[in-house]
Amino acid sequence: MTTSEAESRIGRLLDAIELAKNDEREEALIILRELIREDSNFEDAWLWMSVVVDSLDQSSVCLDNVLRVNPGNAAAAGA
Q1: pLDDT in tens, 5-57
Q2: Where are the beta strands (DSSP E) in 1-79?
Q3: What confidence score (pLDDT) does residue 69 get?
Q4: What does the alpha-carbon distance between residue 58 and residue 33 come to, in Å, rounded to a whole number?
Q5: pLDDT higher than threshold 80 for residue 79
Q6: Burial level of 21, CB count in 10 A (0-12/13-18/19+)?
Q7: Residue 78 pLDDT greater than 90, yes or no
Q8: Whole-prediction pTM value?
Q9: How far apart are CA 33 and CA 53, in angstroms?
């Protein structure tokens, strides 16, 4: 991955986080799904996806994926 690709990914993640914080969950979901489709090991995208999905079951799946990527993630392990 090039530096500009990584910067673009981080920029889109930050956009999704801002949308989530503004309770614009559907818009955040679109961006997060794209990021995860591009890289299924994008830990932070999975973590934020767990915040904006509609159900506890979906959130649990997202947190399981965070732990799959990083078993030591304290935020996911404690949820």
Answers
A1: 889 999 999 999 999 999 999 999 999 999 999 999 999 999 999 999 999 99
A2: none
A3: 96
A4: 13
A5: no
A6: exposed
A7: no
A8: 0.91
A9: 11
Cα distance between residue 70 and residue 73, in whole Å: 6
CA distance 9 to 28: 14
Which pLDDT value is given to residue 29? Answer: 97
DSSP secondary structure letter of residue 53: S
Distance CA 35, CA 25 (A): 15
- Give the C-alpha distances (Å, rounded to integers) separating 66 from 3, 4, 16, 32, 69: 24, 24, 17, 13, 5
What are 56's two structure tokens?
């506890």
Lookup result for tokens 């949820």: 79
Token readout for 27 is: 């818009």
The Cα 45–Cα 52 span in angstroms is: 11
The DSSP result for 9-27, as a single string, is HHHHHHHHHHHHHTT-HHH
How far does Cα 28 stand from its chain's mean position?
9
